[in-house]
Amino acid sequence: MSTIFEKIISGEIPADIVHQDELCLVIRDIDPQAPCHLLVIPKKVIPRIGNAVENDQSILGHLLLIAAKVAESENLSSGYRIVINNGSDGGETVPHLHVHVLGGRQMKWPPG
Ligand code: AMP
Q1: The CATH fold of domain 4-103
Q2: How far away, in angstroms, is 55 Cα from ligand 1 center?
């Protein structure tokens, strides 16, 4: 069964898309946890970072570079946080790899 992110990638379900290229899509999170909350989603189905393989190296690097690029275009010059949740203890709810980019407020440490 395909995940919500596969349905967004295929266009079956609408999303607020802020960037798209051959490898990934960036959308606004439907339940934002900060004034700016973006999700960088690879078009390739990789369930989670723990399932990525050697061959995914360039995709993974691309996701981080795009995360920094969209943070800049969202004017998050005073800082932002990048998060990847892996598995149930990690807080993962959608089993399709995605990088959260959160900004526009002071982040706390340790995260909850
Ligand atoms: P995670 O908990 O790390 O798996 O993150 C999944 C994220 O996807 C959550 O922050 C959700 O709010 C977000 N999300 C779920 N469905 C949608 C959707 N249809 N459009 C945008 N974001 C979504």
Answers
A1: HIT family, subunit A (3.30.428)
A2: 26
